[in-house]
Amino acid sequence: MKLIITGILAGFIATTVLATTAAKAEDMVFTSWGGTTQEAQTKSWAEPFTAASGIKVMQDGPTDYGKLKAMVDSGSVNWDVVDVEMDFAIKAAKDGLLEPIDFKTVPKADLDPRFTTDHAVGSFYYSFVLAWNKGAVSGEPAGWADMFDLTKFPGKRTFYKWSAPGVIEIALLADGVPADKLYPLDLDRAFKKLDTIKSDIVWWGGGAESQQLIASGEATFGQLWNGRVFALDKDGADVGISWNQNLTAADVLVVPKGAKNKDTAMKFLAAASSPAGQAKFAEASGYAPINTKAKAEMPADAVKSLPDAHVDGQINLDMNYWAANRDTIAARWYAWQAK
Amino acid sequence: MSVETRRNFGTVRVPAGLNGLLPALILIMLFFVVPVLALLLRSVTEPEPGLQNYAALLGDGTYARVFFNTFLVAALVTIVTVLVAFPVAWMLAIMPSGLASIIFGIIILSMWTNLLTRTYAWMVLLQRTGVINRTLMTIGVIDQPLPLINNLTGVTIGMVYIMLPFMILPLVGTLRAIDPMTLRAASLCGASPFQAFRRILLPLSLPGVAAGGLMVFVMSLGYFVTPALLGGTSNMMLAEMIAQMVQSLLNWGLGSAAAFILLVVTMALYALQLRLAGARRMSGGI
């Protein structure tokens, strides 16, 4: 009797397990940062991909590097494609956390080489721009140096809170370092410059927070992602934007090492980085496509608001430098912040 | 004498009850003790075996400041919470029970509301362009907005608000147990209201203050959301620093060590409270 019950139970468990794996082989999980960006990714990439292939794409988030590492370390990887910052991707590839990209499945020829590596395909690229609340600022800030001018522009200014490419470079540019002499970063000089306005800085930790700070006038101006300013403007907020010395950085798509649906993930990457997928996403988000053929598929006025239209004076943040120095800079950054 | 023996016998019987507790004990072992041991192990093995994570934490000025900050904020929050909670609790204790239960309902309702929502509500109230500053500026009390957010003030206001129920509830219990006649007796003997409060009410309510205060203090030590949203970077607390180590720097060894230190300190405080409470019970026992 007992044997029979055990047998039935084992059979039941086996079928359940098989059924789950069968279902899982069809589905995949995409993880990104939430908010308007992930909505645009769902609409531009996941939905058309499901329509074409029948493969369900489940959305998860927000991206959490700690979680990603935990999944890879424990061998139980629930994410198949993850949107991460590019400097993290370079570091993570070195630490063995990522699958190499299968460029037989993902066509590489038209991808912007700035944002493509052996372990990552560009997701989109963006610029840090200077944005301000027109009602709260008298006059027009012209460039990064104005963010450090407390007499001409009093009031709170907002910067990105986390240790990441951007703020250090802004401080150095404002202090007169020429764009082509930024790297290697002079951290002492940057922190000294930042010290001059430290008590007037309000930090933003996420895109929505940066929008709220500027829209409410809590911070009169700040360093924002261009897509967030684009969205504010679309919503009718009275914001100004300066593209002067806009700083490009990128998000990339990666596949964590040991992802359960690696092959499906590669197919998804092919669709997301295709001219059509990139064009749709860029139009919805205001972030720039990483496929060089995408712009041809976009309406002309949508192209105008992209970082691509502002290459004059544009500076590419050095992702390789950051990947190599991520930990040392971060240690100093957080120590300085906590002071 | 025979009564004493029977009572003692009752206490000794506890192990028999342990059988029933076994599933709970296994659960606690699996989901609490084992992870804590894993945490400890990680803190002395990553990135390499040794005590370098603890040395880094204790030897570095930044971390020391964050530790100090954490205790400062927790202490400040506890003191302010006690000061605000005491009058409320006293009112609730002497109020007609119908009205009291309505107010209890309101207090408990706030605990059921999402923590993030409540914290964001404070952001809307406290920011420079927020309700409080706008109102004060309109009626001409201030010319410049007060800095109420992104600093210690913001963290304290937000956390006191969240901790109040944890202080009020145990305090009301203690205050209700105090015989109101003792206060009347004091005033009949010529004590001023302040004297009656200081010499009768306060000493009698101390166990409740201590219990609530310790709970508030310990909870504050590990708080994350409210300090992260209402505080500035210069009053960062330990929980936020640990989150940075784990999520952003991926330095799990260091994060584990910081978490373990916090755990040990918390346990030590709890043990101290138990000893104090035990001593009080013995000396106060009739």
Using brief descriptors, characterize the structure shown.
heterodimer; A: 339 residues; alpha/beta; D-Maltodextrin-Binding Protein, domain 2; 2 domains; disordered N terminus; B: 286 residues; mainly alpha; MetI-like fold; 0% strand
Q: Indicate the proportion of strand residues of chain B.
A: under 5%
Distance between the termini of chain B: 16 Å
Please count the beta strands of chain B (DSSP E, at least 2 residues each): 0
- What low-confidence regions of chain B span 5 or more consecutive residues with pLDDT below 50? 1-14
β content of chain A, as a range? 15-25%
Could you give a short account of the major beta sheet of chain B? Answer: none
Order of helices and strands of chain A: HEHEHEHEEHHEHEHEHHHEH
In helices, the fraction of residues of chain B equals over 70%
Biggest interface pair, residues each?
A: A-B, 23 and 24 residues
- Structural Rg of chain A: 22 Å
CATH class of chain B: Mainly Alpha
Concise overview:
The complex is a heterodimer of chains A (339) and B (286). Chain A contains twelve helices and nine strands.
Describe this structure in words.
The complex is a heterodimer of chains A (about 350) and B (about 290). Chain A is of the alpha/beta class and about 350 residues long. Chain A has 2 domains: about 1-125 and about 250-295, D-Maltodextrin-Binding Protein, domain 2; about 125-250 and about 310-339, Periplasmic binding protein-like II (D-Maltodextrin-Binding Protein, domain 2). Chain A is built from 12 helices and 9 strands. Chain A has helices at about 1-25, 35-55, 65-75, 85-95, 165-175, 185-195, 205-215, 225-235, 260-270, 275-285, 300-305, 320-339; strands at about 30, 55-60, 80-85, 120-135, 155-160, 200-205, 220-225, 240-255, 315. In chain A, strands 1, 2, 3, 4, 5, 6, 7, 8 and 9 form a 9-stranded mixed sheet that branches. In chain A, strand 1, helix 2 and strand 2 form a beta-alpha-beta unit. In chain A, helix 2 packs antiparallel against helix 10 (about 275-285) and helix 4 crosses helix 12. The longest helix of chain A has 25 residues, at about 1-25. Chain A starts with a helix and ends with a helix. The relative contact order of chain A is 0.18. Chain B is mainly α. Chain B has one domain: MetI-like (MetI-like fold, Orthogonal Bundle), CATH 1.10.3720.10. Chain B is about 80% helix and about 0% strand. Chain B contains 13 helices and no strands. Chain B has helices spanning about 1-10, 15-45, 50-60, 60-95, 95-110, 115-125, 130-140, 150-175, 180-190, 195-220, 225-230, 240-250, 250-285. The model of chain B is unreliable at about 1-15 (pLDDT under 50). The chains are: A alpha/beta (about 350), B mainly alpha (about 290).
